[in-house]
């Protein structure tokens, strides 16, 4: 701003033809304004002068060049970011550090995307599929064998025993306590 005010409110030097800044209707030369009112940068600790962009977040201030992801040092200017324990992180670093990892592909499950949880593990919805037919399991009944998940029809097709005469799946059930086979043995029934 070029001066219409005659003198700096602090040092009393003439402001004619010089840049100045206003604060509470008082004019200050740039040097006085910066020394009195400039915010210190969180990163470099230098004052953020009135001719620089002052980027602020939760009462903290940064130069535009200092406003970076703590982990990868990429600029956060005009980009989404997250804060964790007072540290600023780009969304990619935040997700890699704090989001769930898919049990199947080991990649980050990005915040906002759908995930499935099964037996204490998280899965991308697209990774939570039947090992045989590759169809999404979603909330369908499933059977796990050797840490692999199968939809019931595929499990029965691949692993179940079938009756030779009627071709139906034979299920296992425990025998009754009075049976001569004993409690620990099982028999094939429909």
TrEMBL record:
<dbReference type="InterPro" id="IPR001781">
    <property type="entry name" value="Znf_LIM"/>
</dbReference>
<protein>
    <recommendedName>
        <fullName>Four and a half LIM domains protein 5</fullName>
    </recommendedName>
</protein>
<dbReference type="GO" id="GO:0008270">
    <property type="term" value="F:zinc ion binding"/>
</dbReference>
<dbReference type="GO" id="GO:0005634">
    <property type="term" value="C:nucleus"/>
</dbReference>
<dbReference type="Pfam" id="PF00412">
    <property type="entry name" value="LIM"/>
</dbReference>
<dbReference type="Pfam" id="PF25076">
    <property type="entry name" value="LIM_FHL2-3_N"/>
</dbReference>
<keyword id="KW-0677">Repeat</keyword>
<keyword id="KW-0862">Zinc</keyword>
<feature type="domain" description="LIM zinc-binding">
    <location>
        <begin position="39"/>
        <end position="99"/>
    </location>
</feature>
<keyword id="KW-0539">Nucleus</keyword>
<dbReference type="GO" id="GO:0003713">
    <property type="term" value="F:transcription coactivator activity"/>
</dbReference>
<keyword id="KW-0479">Metal-binding</keyword>
<feature type="domain" description="LIM zinc-binding">
    <location>
        <begin position="100"/>
        <end position="161"/>
    </location>
</feature>
<keyword id="KW-0440">LIM domain</keyword>
<comment type="function">
    <text>May be involved in the regulation of spermatogenesis. Stimulates CREM transcriptional activity in a phosphorylation-independent manner.</text>
</comment>
<dbReference type="GO" id="GO:0030018">
    <property type="term" value="C:Z disc"/>
</dbReference>
<comment type="subunit">
    <text>Interacts with CREM (via the third LIM domain). Interacts (via second LIM domain) with SPAG8.</text>
</comment>
<dbReference type="GO" id="GO:0045944">
    <property type="term" value="P:positive regulation of transcription by RNA polymerase II"/>
</dbReference>
<dbReference type="InterPro" id="IPR042947">
    <property type="entry name" value="FHL5_LIM2"/>
</dbReference>
<keyword id="KW-0863">Zinc-finger</keyword>
<dbReference type="InterPro" id="IPR056807">
    <property type="entry name" value="LIM_FHL1/2/3/5_N"/>
</dbReference>
């Amino acid at each position: 701003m070029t001066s219409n005010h005659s003198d700096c409110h602090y040092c009393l030097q003439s402001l004619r033809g010089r840049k100045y800044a206003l604060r509470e209707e008082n004019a200050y030369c740039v040097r006085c304004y910066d020394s009195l009112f400039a915010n210190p940068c969180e990163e470099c600790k230098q004052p953020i002068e009135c001719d620089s962009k002052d980027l602020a977040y939760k009462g903290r201030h940064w130069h535009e060049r200092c406003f970076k992801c703590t982990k990868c040092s990429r600029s956060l200017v005009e980009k989404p970011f997250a804060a964790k324990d007072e540290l600023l992180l780009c969304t990619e670093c935040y997700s890699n550090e704090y989001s769930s990892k898919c049990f199947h592909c080991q990649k980050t499950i990005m915040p906002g995307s759908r995930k499935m949880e099964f037996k204490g593990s998280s899965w991308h919805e697209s990774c939570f599929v039947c090992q045989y037919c590759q169809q999404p399991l979603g909330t369908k009944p499933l059977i796990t064998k050797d840490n692999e998940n199968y939809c019931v029809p595929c499990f029965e097709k691949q692993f179940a025993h079938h009756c030779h005469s009627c071709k139906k799946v034979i299920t296992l059930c425990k025998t009754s306590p009075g049976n001569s086979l004993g409690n620990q043995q099982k028999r094939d029934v429909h």
